[in-house]
Amino acid sequence: MPSLVLGPILRHVEATEATVWVETDTVCEVAILGTVAPTFQVEGRHYALVALTGLEPGAIREYTVELDGERVWPEPGSDLPASVLRTVDPGGQVEIVFGSCRVSLPHEPPYVLQEPEHEYAQGIDALRTLAVRLAETPPETWPGCLLMLGDQIYADDLSPSMREVTAARVSADDAPQGELADYDEYALAYREAWSEPLIRWLLSTVPTGMIFDDHEIHAQWKTSKAWVDEMRRKPWYDRHIAAGLAAYWVYQHIGNLSVAELEANELLGRVHEAEDAGELLHAEMRDADRQPGHSRWSFSRDLGGVRLVAIDTRAGRELEPGSRQIIDAGEWEWVTGEASGDFDHLLLASSVPFFLPPGLHHAEAWIDAVADGAWGRPATAVAERIRRAAVMDHWAAFRRSFARLGELLEDVAAGRRGVPPASVIMLSGDVHHCYLAEVEPAPASTGRTSVWQAVCSAYRKDLDRRERLAMKLGSSRLGARLGRTLARLAGEDEPRAAWRLVERPCYENQVATLSLAPGRAHLRVETTAGADWRRPELRPVFEHRLVDEVVPDRPAVSPERAAR
User: Fold this and answer.
1) Which of 328, 304, 329, 302 lies closest to 314 in space, CA to CA?
2) Which of 49, 144, 172, 329 has its CA 20 to 30 A from that of 81?
3) Is 0.90 surpassed by the pTM of this model?
4) b/e map of 428-452 (b: 16 or more CB within 10 Å)?
5) What would you report as the CA-atom Rg of the chain, rounded to the nearest whole angstrom?
6) Which residues of 350-373 are buried (b: 16+ CB within 10 A; e: fewer)?
7) Please, which residues bridge with residue 547 across strands?
């Protein structure tokens, strides 16, 4: 009898459609709510993505999973609530939970201690603690989307159990034992990350959107062209990058797509036709990594009157010195198109923050300018070493892209890309702390749109003392003055956009909740700091009203447009 290896994971949910992802232990047919889908095979592993259509908008419905006609989910004897599928209510409030960076460790001592107390200590998991809370509340109160903004797994910072797996390798051409080497190891890492009972239940009942960041491949992935050139000379890197991207395509990316996008996806069709698509996917992903500026990973999603645009700011980078871009021109054209239209709120999501605390921003812009030759050839090598050591690869380190972002925000706020939304809220993770910044796109912006940068990280990943000290300096007034001075000395002008921190950073494990309705936006960040690991709780870090009035001259979003 077939069984579930991983899942079910509820993925893309709209008003009348939804998809559910599963991994099984053999070839079979997967049935959910009367819809049946066959599995496909990659490297001897079996998967299915079940596309459900004709659903009722704004409805909550329990579901089960059957494999070849036998029910396998919910698991017998589980005391967790039933998994439900709640479709989008076009006229209702939208609640989005977001964050990033989650290591996979047991939920017991010593792993739940703080970072200085044990080698593997990473505190209490904020995402699992959220699941504890939701399991005790009715489905009507659960969020409509869980946005996972990168580092869902750590391919280069392995748990003790994964280190045992990599230590058993025999090939001399494999990746270092501290990193994942092949598809099988990646699959085991995803299973470790998402198999814990509360996490598994959470993913089965709250729709998820996912975008990757560096640690799904390597801590410095595509930081610079020099880094990429160096890594491609290593005999194990091609296998490593192809396996990592193939696993990302299977475990994360295809679930981001709508039913229509899945039907039109040529690669997914070929994967279904193949007896085993492992070789096909690996060849595709090796080519994807070597095509400059190539990206296939960004996605958008409409949640009633809210447009979410999740941007790949990692795989599609242009890294040639002198013309570096975090997003190439073709991808940016897609982003600007998705950001144009009529929405109550526009959400721009990036794994790395668009707007860093000012000190960190100016420091990265300075290093980028020096690495491009602002202080002459001898200084470029020093700047490259600093850029890698400090992983300075956010939007600020791609000055042309940051300037384009400022122009886009100005256009949206001024109504040059459609009716101005009540807010543009940029959602990010990566930096292992939270903060909120208010953004003024440019003095010329006369629209009534509020613009914000909200950062929440990590779900579970402590900074060490050195890293925390650097972040605190970058967020301080002294850090801002020092960074600005260095940037000016490298010939950098002040950005067109201005921003200020309105909620100061917190450096603990945390999760953020964004609540949106027409003319309303509210952000809450909560942490597990100080909680008892046996009875974990989330406690407020800050709450902030981002928008708190109905904009009178904005037409209401039509139910037809909201239900797209």
Assistant:
1) 328
2) 49
3) yes
4) bbbbbbbbbbbbebbeebebbbbbb
5) 23
6) bbbbbbbbbbbbbbbbbbbbbbbe
7) 521
